Amino acid sequence: MLRIAVPNKGSLSEPASAMLHEAGYRQRKDRKELVLVDAENEVEFFFLRPRDIAVYVGSGRLDIGITGRDLLLDSGSQAEEIMQLGFAGSTFRYATRPGTAKDVSEFGGMTVATSFAGLVTKHLADNGVDAAVVHLDGAVETAIQLGVAEVIADVVETGTTLRNAGLEIIGEPILESEAVVIRRTGDPSDDPKVQQFLRRMQGVLVARRYVMMDYDIRVEQVERAVALTPGLESPTVSPLHHEGWVAVRSMVPAKDAQRIMDELYDLGARAILTTGIHACRL
Asked: ATP phosphoribosyltransferase catalytic domain: from which residue to which, for each copy (predicted)?
């Protein structure tokens, strides 16, 4: 069986399980379950702490896993990213009190507090900065107020928490993170079971981004209509019983669907319908 690590809690957990369910895999009903066997799909799921997943995959104990890019890089494990999953996006940045520093190059001799010591240590080294790194498990924004550090490195969403703590963001982002699928570094990329899993996950991503659009249009307007709905290869165009009319079916980006419907209507299209896509293979 393919052995897959899945986050057991936190911001990665529910979106990962929802995506796996959409991809046709069984998922646990009880949060206390640590292992779930999906015999029909020949997969065994292991529900682990998100921070530990890269370690298990990197050791070769598990075949692939879902975790955050930040957690992967912080772990230092022999594992690599093979697919982006498009959820749990975050930005990792430095922050300090106003006037302390303007850029990472000025952190020399200072102490940086963070929950991602491995990631920050590497980033400072890559920038040639000699600074101490203190590992904290959470609430790192209080480290400066309590005198533990002069700088913090943490996940930033809106920046409100940092501003409320009297801090300002410094320099460029250390990392743009999101949920990713990982495997052990050096493992073969053509493993059929892994490739099937990736196709399923890619199918979910496509299904979430697109809708199926159907509409009727006069023959003389087909080319202009098809220019609005080109599909992935090309749309399906079928003649209707009434002469001079055709039915068109095409995949269109969900975010553009309403605008496309308006433009098709202005061209004379009628019976314009959109349908959600539950699964897809490209």
From this structure: 49-203
